[in-house]
Structures are given as structure tokens and as C-alpha cells.
Design brief:
The longest helix has 18 residues, at about 15-30. This protein has about 290 residues and is an alpha/beta fold. It has two domains: about 1-95, 2-Layer Sandwich (60s Ribosomal Protein L30, Chain: A); about 100-290, PurM-like C-terminal domain (Phosphoribosyl-aminoimidazole Synthetase, Chain A, domain 2). The strands form two sheets. A seven-stranded mixed sheet has the order 6-9-5-10-7-11-8, with helices on both faces. It contains ten helices and eleven strands. The protein has helices at about 15-30, 55-70, 120-130, 135-145, 150-155, 170-180, 200-205, 210-220, 235-240, 255-265; strands spanning about 1-10, 35-45, 75-80, 85-95, 110-115, 160-165, 185-190, 225, 250, 275-280, 285-290. Helix 6 (about 170-180) runs parallel beside helix 8. About 50% of the residues are buried.
């Protein structure tokens, strides 16, 4: 049995979509462990004197529909009054102990596969500042509300033993933690990193649209990263960008790569990019970005 809990404040204006994104994010940790979600409970804090019952209902309906999509049972929850809206789930799942995915099982030669493009932190900051709208917002919402189901299928077939979901500490932060836990190093290819939309790079370079959390992530990661001279500042921020409901970063043995990519294709992941490789532990930084 595996368990997780997660919740956050709204990052989009639409209450139904907020519920979907928050629920997806909460379910992600179970998938990242290779688990199958079984039950979920709502975690709700709302300013009931400000938000109408209809809006609160829409938030919960969005979450309930996403739980249903995950073939998971919604088993109640708990609510309180709170000055700012918060919503998420406590989720219980099941996984075969011999096939459980952790962030401590990476081995030299494993290929790094990323299942969602990066940039949600920068993009949501751009939305709040009124710098972006329209189709790119729709793309981001679709990304953040896409379940990480491939993790469950990869584990059930014994294809992947090591993975992590990419969330608040950015791809770099989660990869550094994975390397440290596994006793390995890694190489990332900056040119192979998928991005939600080229507009993300413009937001960084022309608008200085980089959230504080992303800047902190990069400052923290720098101690464990060796950057090639050709890597741009925009790429550095992208790799450190704090993601909401990001994808899975999977350490895939070369012999299983074709089957893993096929699962990603069948589940219609928004990315199935090979972004780097696990290398042997040695001297120097844990992660090389080239």
C-alpha cells in the first residue's frame, strides 16, 4: 500500500479546471511509485463567505471527474474554512512490492525519458501577469490535467525500477535527488528538453518572466550541476522551472526503451522525449548539462 497527500491554491481562474489539475497532481505521486490508485479523499479549505457554493461545487466536480478517470473511488474527505482556497486529495494506492518504482534504483546506462514538456511555472506566472492568453493557456491546462498513468503500466510490466514525477523542485532538483539516492551521475541534453511552447523562451528572455521558486531551484541546483558553455540562461531556468502536475522522469534500461515509448504513445503522453542518460558515479557534479 502506498499513500500520498497534496493540495494547492488556484493556478487558473476556471474552478472546474482548477479541481482537475489539483486532483491530477495529487494522483501523480501514486503513479510515480508504479501504483494503481484505489481510494481518494478530498482535502478542502474554502473562504465560504467569498466563494459561492456553486463555485466550490465546480472545484469538487473537476476533482471527482479526474478521480473517476483514474478508475479510483472517491471516499469522502474533510473541509474547513480558509482565507484562501485550497484543494487536493489524499490518495491510497496498491503496488507489487517487487515492482515498486522509487527514486533510488537508477543504474549506469539507463536512458532518461520525460513524459511531459516543461514550462508550467513560467507560463502560469505569465498568465498571472497578463502576458499570455488563448491557445497556449489551453495547452498548459491540458498538460497539467493529464494523468501520469504510464507509471502504473511500466511498473506492472517490470520495465522501470526508478522514476520521479517532476513537480515543485523542477527537473534538475528531482534528478539531483534521484542521482544522490541512487549513487549515480547523469547527463542531460539541453537541446532535447521538450518545452510547452516556444513562447516560454520568449517569456524568459524578453519579459523576465521567471517565478521566484524557479530562481531558488536554479540557485540550489547550481552546486550539483556542471553547465556546458553553450547552455543558455533560458534553458537553465527551464530545467529548474517549478512544475505543477508535471510528467514522469523515468530511468529506462536500454532493452526496455522501445516498450516504454510504446506505452507513452498508447497513453498519449504529451512528451516521450529521451533527454539524457544515467552515468557512473565519479568526481565532480552529479549532473552534466550539455
Amino acid at each position: 500500500m502506498v499513500q500520498t497527500v497534496d493540495f494547492f491554491t488556484p493556478i487558473v481562474d476556471d474552478p472546474y479546471l482548477y479541481g482537475q489539475i489539483a486532483a491530477t497532481n495529487s494522483l501523480s505521486d501514486i503513479y510515480a511509485m508504479g501504483g494503481r490508485p484505489v481510494t481518494a479523499m478530498n482535502v478542502v479549505g474554502m473562504p465560504a463567505d467569498i466563494l459561492s457554493l456553486e463555485i466550490i461545487h465546480e472545484i469538487l466536480a473537476g476533482g471527482a471527474d479526474k478521480v473517476r478517470e483514474a478508475e479510483c473511488a472517491l471516499a469522502g474527505g474533510h473541509s474547513i474554512k480558509n482565507p484562501e482556497p485550497i484543494y487536493g486529495l489524499s490518495v491510497t494506492g496498491l503496488v507489487n512490492p517487487s515492482r515498486m518504482i522509487t527514486n533510488a534504483g537508477a543504474e549506469e546506462g539507463d536512458v532518461l525519458v520525460l513524459t511531459k514538456p516543461l514550462g508550467t511555472g513560467i507560463l502560469t506566472t505569465g498568465i498571472k501577469r497578463g502576458l499570455v492568453s488563448g491557445g497556449i493557456v489551453d495547452t498548459a491546462v491540458a498538460l497539467m490535467s493529464r494523468l501520469n498513468k504510464p507509471g502504473q503500466r511500466m511498473a506492472e510490466r517490470g520495465l522501470v525500477k526508478c522514476a520521479t514525477d517532476v513537480t515543485g523542485f523542477g527537473l534538475l532538483g528531482h534528478l539531483i535527488s534521484l542521482c544522490r539516492s541512487s549513487g549515480v551521475h547523469a547527463t542531460l541534453n539541453a537541446s532535447d528538453i521538450p518545452v510547452i511552447d516556444p513562447e516560454i523562451i520568449r517569456l524568459i528572455e524578453a519579459e523576465g518572466c521567471v517565478p521566484g521558486g524557479t530562481k531558488e531551484n536554479l540557485n540550489t541546483a547550481n552546486a550539483d550541476v556542471n553547465w556546458a558553455a553553450a547552455v543558455s540562461d533560458a534553458s537553465k531556468y527551464l530545467l529548474a522551472d517549478a512544475q505543477t502536475s508535471g510528467g514522469l522522469l523515468c530511468c529506462v534500461p536500454e532493452k526496455h526503451l522501445k516498450e516504454v515509448l510504446a506505452i507513452c504513445d498508447e497513453e498519449e503522453t504529451l512528451s516521450q522525449s529521451v533527454v539524457g542518460q544515467i552515468t557512473a558515479a565519479g568526481e565532480g557534479a552529479l549532473v552534466q548539462v550539455v
